[in-house]
Specification:
By secondary structure, this protein is α/β, with parallel strands linked by helices. It has one domain: TIM Barrel (Alpha-Beta Barrel). It is built from eight helices and eight strands; from the N terminus they run βαβαββαβαβαβαβαα. The strands form two sheets. It has a five-stranded parallel beta sheet with strand order 4-5-6-7-8. Strand 4, helix 3 (90-96) and strand 5 (107-111) form a beta-alpha-beta unit.
């Protein structure tokens, strides 16, 4: 496999007790450990936007996890973020600080209903950018309306970027969704690969198989998919 400096993950639900991700502090640490054993060295925490969840609670629990990571000598840097389910209130909440951007950048990880209309996605993209934020579509492979008629090109030209889950390319040659995802990577549509990790035993961080495929079949995009673009968000070079 192509040599890598490290992997940076921009989509992960490892903060315990805030959404459908990790349930306990111990599970948070186990997920992080599992990821680092596969080469992940930086992770942006992206809990779902939940009605009672505040940015203060996210930061507080992340600091607890960071302390435990240091105690356990786990080699991993952690950053705040959120997976934002887009709604009419999303921009207002971003501006007020109730919702978090990725690593305090202008980029946001934004999620839509898989069956959302193309018109709605165009409107949301335009409104997000007009408000001064830059959208990264979480698991873009799930949005059926973007899978035809060069619609990915249109949304990308508007200023959006696309994230794909590593496990989406783990299927075989007869898996239509896997074939579609691999083609999206080879055609240069994807800017970030991410784990979208949730729980031990259920949506664990799994990157090794996908990294091998990307290394062999889309090597010219390997660095930017696995760490360069993500690191540039963290260091603000993409702002």
């Amino acid at each position: 496999m192509k040599d890598i400096e490290h992997v940076t993950d921009i989509h992960a639900h490892f903060i315990y007790g805030v959404d459908d991700g990790a349930r306990t502090l111990e599970e948070s640490l186990e997920l992080i450990k599992m990821a680092t054993e596969q080469g992940v060295k930086k992770i942006i925490a992206t809990p779902h936007t939940m009605p009672e969840l505040t940015s203060t609670e996210i930061a507080k629990k992340l600091n607890i996890i960071k302390a435990k990571v240091r105690e356990a000598n786990i080699d991993c840097e952690l950053y705040t973020g959120q997976e934002i389910f887009y709604s009419e209130k999303a921009i207002e909440y971003l501006k007020s600080g109730r919702y978090l951007t990725l690593a305090d950048s202008k980029y946001i990880l934004v999620e839509f209903d898989p069956g959302i209309s193309y018109g709605y996605i165009k409107m949301a993209t335009r409104d997000i950018i007009f408000a001064g934020f830059l959208p990264v579509f979480a698991h873009v492979e799930r949005y059926q309306c973007l899978q035809k008629n060069h619609r990915l090109d249109t949304i990308r030209d508007m200023g959006a970027m696309f994230q794909m889950n590593y496990t989406s390319i783990d299927g075989g040659i007869f898996n239509k969704n896997t074939v579609m995802c691999k083609n999206m990577i080879k055609n240069g549509y994807i800017s970030f690969m991410a784990t979208d990790m949730h729980r031990v035993g259920e949506r664990e961080p799994k990157v090794t198989k996908a990294l091998l495929w990307i290394s062999k079949n889309a090597s010219k995009y390997f660095e930017e998919l696995t760490y360069e673009n993500a690191d540039n968000i963290i260091t603000r070079r993409m702002d």
